[in-house]
User: Fold these one by one.
Assistant:
Number 1:
Amino acid sequence: MGGIKEVVITDWALDSYLDLKHKQTFTDDEYRDTLRPDAMLLHHYPSEPKFNNRKFWGPAKAANGAIRDGYKMKWHNIGNGTVQLRLLVVILDSVAYLCNAYEKDGPGTDKRQMAKLKDKIQKIEQGTFVAKGKLT
Amino acid sequence: MRYQTTPESIIRACEIALQMKKSGLSDEFIAGAMKIAVRSEGVFDLMVLWAEEGDEEAVADIQELIDEDEKESRELGKKIEFKDLGGIADSIVEFKKKLRDKVDQSGGVSELARKTGMPQSSLSRFFNSASRPRRTTLHKIAGAIGLRPEEIAFDWTR
């Protein structure tokens, strides 16, 4: 598999960021020192060793199996130390698309996010989504 | 195209639609959900989560996807700088708080749900999040409580 050509910030990622920031799900320091640098690693996907760490990166999975081209970036003990933060990423044709970020506060949240991810993959494939910029 | 709904799933979605009708969800919502569920396995999955696990948040997610489907334009919109995001989130929350006050003066969220056909869980999520409001959602709310267009004019609409 070749490298990633670009990392696209979608409308979904922007709105997730606005909401999580307002709710103080993560601190500014965590964003600057951990979250953003980790997202930047996507430019070096899949060769960057951190992508082999299953606690940090793994396939998105629904009840009926893995969601092809869908992945989760995972952070543990964020914010007040108890937040399990997830960033959904779609990788298609060597482009990484940052989708929803959310607090995993129960199995129900994950299931709903996986369902929505399928819809997002459809929209990305069709080009019917809004890109807000590129992560550089 | 991936994640297309199968014929079997469409039949199951029809059954769930009838359950939704019995539970009191509006015809507008159910029709909107079905319109997307026939082509999107993701929306079908959300319908199943609502029906089989009683997850009311799934209804708010479906409404989100209905609104996304109704989006009037897909242009990039106003340019947003990263450094401004904190201030934008604050202004969104302030805008929604003022709108919520007007809703409360007009009978509250449950009355708004009845008038707009939007599920109450979806409206609660709308008012409690700092996500940018959709134009379509604002128009529905304004229509329901009799607000003028200038009263819902907002820079950070999407």
Note: The interface with chain B takes residues 11, 14-19, 21-23, 62-63, 68, 108-109, 111-112, 114-122, 125-126, 128-132 of chain A (CB under 8 Å).
Number 2:
Amino acid sequence: MSGGLKGYLDPVILAVLSGRPLHGYAVIEELKRRSGGELDLPEGTVYPALHRLERRGQLRSTWTTVEGRRRRTYRLTASGRRELEARTREWRTFARVVDGVLP
Amino acid sequence: VIDELERELASVGIRGRRRERILAEFADHLACDPGAQLGDPRELAAEFANDLAGDSARQTAFAAFVSLAAVAFAVGVPQLTLPTVPDIAGGRSLWLVGLATLAMVIGAQVAFAAGCLAALRAARLAGPQDVPLVRRRIAVALAAGAATAAGSALYAVNFWGVVPDWWAVLAVAAAAAAAVPLAASAIAQARAGGIVVSGTTPPRGLDADLGPLARPWLIGTAAALAMLVATSVLESSVLAGAIRAAFEAALFAVCFVAFRRRLALTA
């Protein structure tokens, strides 16, 4: 159901990062875990979104070293938290409206 | 995958530390899961490039707009503080004053129009298809802004010794100061232009910027009428107002034809 995620990848990533800082691979694993494996999108597509959200100030990232490899860890900023709240409200309204229409 | 992604990133203009970072993140991902399905490297590189190009076009457009405001200030203050307008034939050269005046008059209006349109489209960027248009509008706006500042400096040089020295120094210094933000914007624009956007369709027309007001003839008529009223009042002469209005209308028509396609001025 990755196709249905169009337009909602950014808030979904923000939601995953609202709990704790994570690196790219862990973000994808957490997405799969929370969706019960339903969100099975090409894993690489998460990285452009992470970079985009960071450029917009909604995420901040830092390098760490794990087993000799460089790893970029992302965390939510205050702006990201506000964006997540706004997009969550927007989604709830949308879902309520569609729920009311569908049989 | 990493080698191929490196090549694809280079081909879309993503280089240096940004590319190194992307590659390091993908390498870390593959180390965590060697069988990970990362996707087509070409599509991934295009997605990075389109995202980056959109964000940088937005930032560059707003920075260019601020630079043009600095030019407006740098040219406007000397024009407003000029004690008396010198006789047109009283300077070094009629050609020089003609060139300077045309650069200021035409440059300022083109810079204003192109700068506003660049900022408007940047604020409503629909996707990568709008990026080349925003870049073209910024380029035209910056070039016209530079011409305006140069015109102001030329005007002062032409009348050096005729106008008060403090005024001539002010005009030249202000034009030189305006060149700094203009140059910074031009450098940012050149850097942003190195990112290749892909999968582009033709950009939307002027109606995407101005909605129902996207009627060039209406805008041109309004500009000419504004010139008629302003000049008639300021110079207490309807004839002078009519001449300026006719010049404004002709200028608008020439600029519209010249920039119609480059700036996407039709609906």
Note: The CA atoms of residues 111 and 141 of chain B lie 4 Å apart.
